[in-house]
Every structure is written in structure tokens, then in C-alpha cells.
Design brief:
Bound molecules: adenosine-5'-triphosphate
CATH topology of one domain: ABC transporter transmembrane region fold
Helix content: 55-70%
CATH architecture of one domain: Up-down Bundle
Mean pLDDT: 82
């Protein structure tokens, strides 16, 4: 909020000439507030009660003149207000549009004209609320100041009786104000979170269905709805505090004056002065306090919160540096895989002594996950580290949990316990945009939409030029397919492609994405072995880490390490190690063996089961 305070102060200082004019017209506007009680008191005491009807009328005529001057002042006040508010709006719009467009200029950002439209709309909200705030605060200061001066002129004791409760009301309001700002902000954030979460769920409904995450996503969106409702209720409760401050500051002075009237008269205060004091309170102070409390508690809070968020949005931060997508540098991966896999259930590849440099690409810690309260745990306190350059094949019987592990790594599922970090960033609570920069998951059912081949490939890398797209197709093995379809501009439809062709397109798209972690969940199951090998090699050579949920032994053989779902606990190791350590792996390798010849050294030992 410091930014809001500083900017507001700056605006006021920069426009001090316009503010001085505004103050001058405000004095004229508050003339009736200054004179109403006093002139009424004179009209009563010196005129009507003294039997001088004409004198009474003359005082009231004076009041009528003051009211006319006040009305003229009000007209001028609105004109001067524009001189303060409009330049503020223009400054803010320029600043935000510039920062949005500059932000869009960073590689990896989209030029977002809707962001500009959204921001300019919010600037209008700031302008209106700022104008309203200026009016009510100024109105209160002048009206209250005028009324207190008038009360002092009538009788200092009356001024003291009114000032006490007024001050108490202001203290109640001022004390509650920070909490009101906080809750209003929570409400705005809750609304945005809900919109973001529902929007992301709708946009990604195909992936949600593919990952069988429907129930979870509905739960997540439902939690956002509940959070927004709670925030609404809290803001409504804060309205009670506004009413309390109005009651104390606006109504109790009236009650005090009425109760104290006999005593005041005994003290020598005239009946006209008591009536004048009541006029000051009921037509000057109370309405001004009412406008202040509702203006600050409503539009004022919106001003603070909206401006605060706009200022946040205006800070242009370049997105993280993007990885070169095509033709990855011809350097060996920085990190050699560990020579020996850690024992089952222990971190692999990133723990102390394993040779990992820097932050691991993937770090899973204490991961427990089950579908539903009574279901068996698919993963139970599971740890895993993957280094940059690592290539892990995940294998296991049907239903063992391979896709679940991939979805957890991708942040599509959230664990019951434990954490998933991708290059140090926790997936819990990460926005879809952040997740998209960190990882790409290619499911078995490849997602292709009706558009040009180029549009399909650019889905995760909108700025990629044609040369980049063609190079990526070439590396992944999609060159012949692109030629057959008629080039990048060829229009494709999901129904017009075979399952394998869709997988090639999805793989090329993933290859082009900025994410450093690639998760292939049986993403090549419809490809012939040669194309599958080419796809896996392309991803293995790409900077980052690769996880392949494998359905052929060839995938496991190409990987640096293999994770096998063996009974209750996944076991990790090299192919050779697992042949001796995992009965499940031996069994799987035995079946796979029939499909693809396995080098002699990889043949399962005719061993009795090992621990
Ligand atoms: N959406 C879901 N709701 C409830 N249970 C689920 C859901 N998705 C998977 N499961 C269960 O979780 C377990 C692990 O499933 P998962 O899909 O991760 O296995 P998998 O090893 O990938 O299997 P496959 O090789 O057949 O794809 C299975 O018992 C499965 O029935």
C-alpha cells in the first residue's frame, strides 16, 4: 500500500495549484454550513422570539444568500475537481499501457491487447473513486470545520459537547479502516483467483479429462468459490463497523444536545443557540460524516485496492530466460547420472554425494497420494530427485501409478502430503502460466485441434517462426508427415489424422515449448519403434530433464535410469541393476523381450526372487 500512498501524495503535490483553487471554491461552498446555525439562532433570538418578525426574516434572508453562494461554489468545485482528477487518469493510463506493451515485447510474452483494455477499464475505476474520495474527504473537512466554527461562535460549551462524540466516531472508523482495506483486498483477490482457476480449468478441459483429474479440478474450483463467499461475508460484516462509527459520531451529538438542552439554557445558552447547534449537527456534521464513512468505506477502499493492484501490474518483469528450443547446444548434460541408484524409497539423483550440480530439475519429497479417502495410496512418502540432463523411464504393471506420478510431477494433481518442486519452484499454488514454463506433459491421447499445422505446433511457443517449426519437426521425425500434409499452412483436423500422426504433432509441440521438464506419458505408444526412438532421442538431447512413461523395453534401455512400480514401493536403478533387484522389472522385461531383442547382458538372470 506504500505505493498507493506515495502516488496519491505525489498527485496532490503535483496538482497543488488546482487543489488550492478547489479549496477556495470549497470555502464558498461551505458558507451555508458555516452560517446556517448562527443565522438561524440570530433569527430566533433577535427576531421571532423578541417579537421582531422583520429582523427574523432579515437574518433568514442572509441565510438564503449564503445558500445561493454555496450552490455557486459547488458548481465551481466540480469544475476544479476535473483539473486534479483528469491529469491523474491520463498519467496512470500512459504508465500502464506503456508497461503492458513493453512487457509484451519480452521474448516469451504475448502481446496482450485485452490486458491493456482491462487495465484502462481499471484506470477509469481509479479515476472515479479518486474523484469521489477527494470530494467526500474535502467535503467533510470543510463542512465539519465550518460547523465547529459556527458552534464556537454560538457557544463554546455547545461546540465541546458536539466535538467529543464526533471525535469518538472518527476514531472507531479510523481504527477499523486498515482491516476494511485488508478484507476488501482479500475479496478482490478471491474473485480473481476464482476467475483464474475456473478459466484455466475450462481452457484445459481436454487435459483434465486426459489426466482423469475432473474430480480434483472441480474440488479446486469449488474451494475458490467458497473462499470468495467467505471474503464477501467478511466485507459485509465490516459494514457494521461503519454503521457504529456513524451512530457514535453522527447521531449521538444530536442526542447529547437534546438531553443537555435544559442544562444549557440554565447556563445562559439561548434557545436560538440550541436550535442553531442542532441545525449545525443535523444538516452539516452528520451528513458530512455519513458521506465520509460511506465514501471512504466504499469507493475509497476500491480506490486503494484497485490502484495497488494496478501498480503491481505496471511493474514490468521480464519472464525467465527461455531455453533455445531447436538445435539444443551440443554440450554434454552438466550432470552425470548417479553410478548407483539409491535404495528404494530414497532420493535418487539429487541427494548429497550423487553428483548433482545446482538445483535439481525435479524434487519430490514425502509424496503421498490417493484417489479418495478410502482408496489405497498410489504413492506413499515417495522421494525422487531428477537432475538436469536426466532421462528417467517409468515402468510398471497397468494401474500401478505411472500416470499418477506423471500428473503429480506436472502439478496436475496435488499430493495429500509432500512437495513437488520443479527447478526449485513448488507446483502447489503455481499458476497455469508458471507451470507451463516449467514442464510439459504429453498424454497418450494427443491433443490436436482444427487449425493449420503451424498453429498446432505453436500452441506452447506462439512466437516460433517457420524455420524453428520445420527444424523441430525434423528433429522429432515429423518432417515426412508435414510434407504429406502439405506443409505448415495445411489445415488439419483431429479426425483426419491417425493416432500416431497426432502423437508426432503433440511431441513436436512439446519439443517447442519453453519447459525444461518433459513428461511423455505413453505419448509415443502409437508410433513405430523407429519413430518412437527418434522422438525419445530428440527429447533426451534437449536441455532439461525427461521422464518417459514407457510401454516398450526399448524406452527403458534408452533411459539413463528406470523407475519401476514394484509392489508397494517404486524402485529406481539402471536397467541392469533392476534386472537383479526387481522381480517385477524382470517379469516386465521378460514380456517385452518377445517384442524387441534385448542384448544378452540385459537378459533376466534365471534367479530366484531377490529381496
Ligand atoms: N481418476 C481416478 N479416480 C480414481 N482412481 C483412479 C483415477 N485414476 C487412476 N486411478 C487409480 O489409481 C491407480 C493408478 O492409476 P494410474 O493411471 O496412475 O496407473 P498407470 O500405471 O498409469 O496405469 P496404465 O499403465 O494402465 O495407464 C489405479 O489403481 C487406478 O485405478
Amino acid at each position: 500500500m506504500t505505493g498507493v500512498r506515495r502516488l496519491t501524495w505525489q498527485v496532490l503535490v503535483d496538482r497543488r495549484a488546482a487543489l488550492t483553487r478547489l479549496a477556495g471554491w470549497s470555502v464558498a461552498e461551505s458558507l451555508p454550513a458555516l452560517l446556517s446555525g448562527y443565522l438561524t439562532a440570530r433569527a430566533v433570538d433577535d427576531g421571532f422570539l423578541a417579537g421582531r418578525f422583520g429582523t427574523g426574516l432579515a437574518w433568514l434572508a442572509g441565510l438564503a444568500v449564503a445558500i445561493a453562494v454555496g450552490a455557486w461554489g459547488t458548481g465551481r468545485v466540480y469544475r476544479s475537481l476535473g483539473a486534479v482528477v483528469e491529469p491523474f487518469r491520463d498519467d496512470l493510463t500512459t504508465r500502464l499501457v506503456r508497461s503492458t506493451l513493453v512487457g509484451a515485447g519480452y521474448p516469451g510474452s504475448r502481446s496482450d491487447s485485452t490486458a491493456v483494455a482491462r487495465l484502462t477499464h481499471q484506470v477509469e475505476v481509479v479515476r472515479d473513486t479518486f474523484g469521489g474520495l477527494l470530494m467526500v474527504v474535502r467535503g467533510f473537512l470543510f463542512a465539519a470545520g465550518a460547523a465547529l466554527l459556527g458552534l464556537l461562535a454560538l457557544a463554546p460549551v455547545v461546540a465541546a459537547l458536539v466535538a467529543g462524540p464526533l471525535l469518538a466516531g472518527l476514531v472507531v472508523f479510523g481504527t477499523a479502516l486498515p482491516a476494511m482495506v485488508r478484507h476488501q483486498r482479500d475479496l478482490v483477490v478471491a474473485g480473481e483467483e476464482f476467475a483464474r482457476s475456473a478459466g484455466a480449468a475450462l481452457a484445459a478441459h481436454r487435459d483434465v479429462v486426459a489426466a482423469r483429474a475432473g474430480e480434483r479440478i472441480v474440488g479446486q474450483v469449488g474451494r475458490r468459490v467458497a473462499a470468495q463467499a467467505t471474503a464477501e461475508r467478511t466485507v459485509s460484516r465490516m459494514a457494521a463497523l461503519r454503521s457504529l462509527s456513524l451512530g457514535v459520531g453522527g447521531w449521538s451529538p444530536v442526542a447529547v444536545l437534546l438531553l443537555a438542552a435544559p442544562w444549557l439554557v440554565r447556563q445562559g445558552v439561548t434557545a436560538g443557540a440550541v436550535l442553531g447547534a442542532l441545525i449545525y449537527v443535523s444538516t452539516g456534521l452528520r451528513p458530512a460524516l455519513h458521506a465520509l464513512v460511506h465514501g471512504v468505506g466504499g469507493g475509497g477502499l476500491r480506490y486503494v485496492v484497485t490502484l495497488d493492484r494496478l501498480l503491481g501490474a505496471a511493474q514490468v518483469t521480464p519472464p525467465p530466460a527461455r531455453t533455445p528450443q531447436v538445435a539444443p547446444p551440443a554440450v554434454a548434460p552438466q550432470v552425470a547420472p548417479p553410478a548407483v541408484a539409491a535404495p528404494a524409497g530414497q532420493p535418487v539423483g539429487g541427494g548429497p554425494g550423487t553428483g548433482t550440480v545446482g538445483r535439481p530439475a525435479v524434487r519430490l519429497r514425502g509424496l503421498t497420494f490417493r484417489y479418495g479417502n478410502r482408496a489405497r495410496a498410489v504413492l506413499d512418502r515417495f522421494d525422487l530427485d531428477l537432475a538436469e540432463g536426466d532421462h528417467l523411464a517409468v515402468v510398471g504393471p497397468s494401474g500401478a501409478g505411472k500416470s499418477t506420478l506423471a500428473a503429480l510431477m506436472a502439478g496436475l494433481l496435488q499430493p495429500e502430503q509432500g512437495t513437488v518442486r520443479l527447478t526449485g519452484v513448488p507446483t502447489a499454488g503455481a499458476s497455469p502460466t508458471v507451470l507451463a514454463r516449467l514442464r510439459v506433459l504429453v498424454p497418450q491421447e494427443a491433443y490436436v485441434f482444427t487449425a493449420s499445422l503451424a498453429d498446432n505446433l505453436r500452441y506452447l511457443h506462439p512466437e516460433a517462426d517457420e524455420r524453428t517449426l520445420l527444424a523441430a519437426l525434423d528433429v522429432v521425425g515429423g518432417g515426412p508427415l508435414a510434407a504429406r500434409l502439405g506443409g505448415l499452412s495445411a489445415r488439419i483436423t483431429p479426425g483426419g489424422l491417425s493416432a500416431g500422426e497426432r502423437q508426432v504433432i503433440a511431441a513436436t509441440r512439446a519439443y517447442l515449448s519453453p519447459a525444461r521438464l518433459v513428461l511423455l506419458d505413453e505419448a509415443t505408444c502409437h508410433l513405430d519403434p523407429a519413430t518412437e526412438a527418434q522422438v525419445e532421442r530428440a527429447f533426451a538431447d534437449r536441455p532439461g530433464a525427461l521422464v518417459v512413461v514407457a510401454h516398450r523395453i526399448s524406452s527403458a534401455l534408452r533411459a539413463r535410469r528406470v523407475l519401476v512400480f514394484d509392489g508397494d514401493r517404486p524402485v529406481t536403478g539402471t536397467h541392469d541393476e533392476l534386472l537383479t533387484r526387481s522381480a517385477t522389472y524382470r517379469e516386465l522385461a521378460g514380456y517385452w523381450d518377445r517384442d524387441i531383442p534385448v542384448p544378452e547382458r540385459h537378459r533376466p538372470a534365471p534367479a530366484t526372487p531377490l529381496p
